[in-house]
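Researcher: We're reviewing a set of sequences before deciding which ones to prioritize for further study. For each one, I'd like a predicted 3D structure that I can look through quickly. This is Stage 0 sporulation protein A homolog. If possible, include the structure in token form so it fits the rest of the review sheet.
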Amino acid sequence: MNQSIHLLIADDHALIREGLRKILSIEPRIHVVGEVADGQQAVEFCTHNVVDIVLMDINMPVMNGIEACRRIKELRPNIVIIALTIHDQDEYLFELIKHGISGYVLKDVDPNQLIQTILGAARGDSFIPPALTARVLAEFSRLTSGDHHDRKHQSLTDREIEVLRQLARGQSNKAIAKILYISEKTVKNHLTNIFNKIGVEDRTQAALYAIREKLVDL
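Model: Here's the predicted structure for Stage 0 sporulation protein A homolog, in token form for your review sheet.
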């Protein structure tokens, strides 16, 4: 990945924004293009500027991060959003996943882990802390304990199902390519087809779909 990542920091605490900027300045591939103090400013900035990734706090004045995420994804669906928060409460995570976030990182995250999460998100990967992943899986298991199933995946080819299963296990595109003996470009093409067929917009939603439909054993 040689292209610079244009990143926006959205947090209502100036000291946190300054600290994040200093941490991210270590990585030459990440270019902080702006800082905003509330969700409304984040939406406006993304509307008028080139942004690849938003590092988004949840609790902000004027407009919170969840609503800002929803609006940004409606206006600019290609923008990647990573939630950065002190909260590990399930309802925040479920709402953000529903609106298409690519990562959920707690504010006590190791700086290197934060950088790697951003670089991974730029490649199309997603990240949710393992402890929170377990809660998500438990909740989806509870919600899908009945007999209702969405059969969109029946239109997937055998290869697409294999790719989807590997994605749900947390594998990156590079890892999937190695496991299935195909190129990364082929993996990306399969993922595009999978997303279209099952009606999702990103890797996180696709992984949760696979889990909900019991296409993968974790």
